[in-house]
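Data availability (excerpt). The following record was deposited with the supplementary files.
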Amino acid sequence: MQNDKMDAKAERQEFVKRQEFERLVRENQSGLLAFLLSLTGNLPDSEDLVQECVTLLWRKFDEFESGSNFGAWARTTAYFLFRNQIRKASNKTMTFEANVLEKLAMAHNQIDTESSTRQHFLSKCLEELGEKDRELILSRYETGVTVGELATQASGNVKSVYNALARIRQSLARCVRRKIAGEEGGPA
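Predicted structure:
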């Protein structure tokens, strides 16, 4: 009986772990493919490397620290898989030298970090908007409602909706820039 409870608990933990891994892979797979495509210049090779990378990431998922940057971890793993593939295929022409590949990998990680920071601040800025502005911007960009449909819902005209959206976007951009400047030690 005790062993059954332990087995059930272990199965639940494994299920939750698998779901978290699959979610992280879904969120990062297109970026990983783009990264590998920039290294290989070849879509079929890049797709093969993504599959190999995902398999390796699953085997090493216990080493991943929850809450850290899965995309950066995946790209680092993919980078080393790519380098290993280049080394194995020494008879093929190498597209880039190793230092160029390292710089490219670092640039991708920096872009990902900056994008994550901007998305975090954008979420905070969205929370700071007035309810009507937040509903309007989310209706347009999160649910994909057209400007014409928004105008009809608000009993307004299309131009006024475009103007409101432009004003809200500018407000969000200023808010994100202010928060980034505050994080970097600049004026908030």
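Summary of structural features: The radius of gyration is 23 Å.
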